[in-house]
Design brief:
By secondary structure, the chain is α/β, with parallel strands linked by helices. 46% of the residues lie in helices and 17% in strands.
Length: 325
């Protein structure tokens, strides 16, 4: 795996710290000089966020908090289309940022831009999507959930609930993380599964497609949404279709937490998106200032999965109000 060298700022910071550690007589000072500053860094966070998908507000919030804590300038950009996301990565490389955090929903489309980052000596970490691809892509670290494992946990939860047929709703075709969720669910679920592809950028179309499918197939007793906004739309579609299907999802937001409290959504598999954004920025900062590589450069740093349901919703709701869950 290619591992980029720490930026030149690391050497400068080390020299400053060495100078501060010694007194004018050459002895070591007992306390660090509070005036010695860590190097100023600019980090680019580039995701595949689609317009209106509030999940990414939580990821970005975590990244912004980590950046504020460390005095980092954070530059955020997003595009759900792989080739356009690659252009955003290349733009960050050309601007000479100190680090890049990127989602790998469509890793093949990004590889050329990631290679350019490596050639420029810019460290890159992955988050959220691409747990099976980040090493081959040459990234330094990865922060996220194991989507296969999350899907399997979802399927096992379906078995416990007595479900017989589940409809897995993929809102972005070709997204490796979403596909892994449905595949993992199908692997562990003892009932029947079907995948429905919808255009997540067009929520009215999502609702119409779901409503029509539920009206056509009354055997569907469970709708598996792969994101909080789509779970809320699925609940509306269930009502419009006159279906008895239950709705559960992957991922949360403030409205989804309220839906679990109200009982319109059964539960959610939480990958802690705030933590993903926070750790990605913090990991790059630690590498630049102290040479640390989380996960040893070989293992992902897992942020999930865990379940949010009626048993723990009160605790989660307190954090959801602040936009961190």
């Amino acid at each position: 795996m290619h591992r980029p060298r720490p930026p030149a700022a690391l050497a400068a910071a080390a020299a400053l710290l060495l100078t501060a550690a010694c007194s004018s007589q050459g002895g070591r000072q007992d306390e660090a000089d509070p005036d010695v500053a860590t190097p100023a860094l600019t980090i680019a966070l580039i995701t595949h966020q689609a317009p209106g998908d509030t999940f990414w507000d939580i990821v970005r919030g975590g990244a912004e908090d980590a950046a504020a804590k460390s005095g980092v300038t954070l530059e955020y950009s997003a595009d759900p289309e792989g080739a356009r996301q690659a252009v955003l990565v290349q733009t960050a490389v050309d601007s000479g940022v100190d680090g890049i955090a990127v989602t790998l929903a469509k890793p093949d489309a990004l590889q050329g831009a990631l290679d350019a980052a490596a050639e420029a000596g810019i460290p890159v970490v992955g988050l959220n999507s691409g747990i099976d691809q980040w090493r081959d892509a040459g990234l330094m670290a990865y922060y996220g959930t194991d989507e296969d494992l999350a899907g399997e946990a979802y399927g096992e939860r379906l078995n416990e609930s007595g479900a017989a047929k589940a409809l897995c709703v993929v809102h972005e075709q070709g997204n490796v993380g979403l596909e892994a969720r449905c595949a993992g669910m199908a692997e562990s679920f003892g009932g029947d599964t079907e995948t429905l592809y919808v255009d997540g950028a067009n929520m009215p179309e999502v609702k119409a497609a779901l409503t029509a499918r539920l009206q056509e197939d009354r055997d569907v007793d469970h709708v598996a949404a792969l994101g909080a906004p789509f779970a809320l739309t699925a609940a509306d579609a269930v009502a419009d279709a006159g279906s008895d299907a239950a709705v559960a999802t992957f991922d949360t937001n403030r409205d989804l937490v309220a839906a679990i409290e109200e009982g319109t959504v059964e539960w959610a598999v939480d990958q802690q998106p705030y933590l993903q954004g926070y750790l990605a920025v913090d990991g790059l900062w630690l590498y630049a200032t102290n040479g640390n590589v989380t996960g040893g450069g070989a293992e992902p740093v897992l942020t999930g999965p865990s379940f949010v349901d009626r048993e723990n919703i009160d605790e989660v709701a307190a954090y959801a109000e602040s936009g961190t869950r």
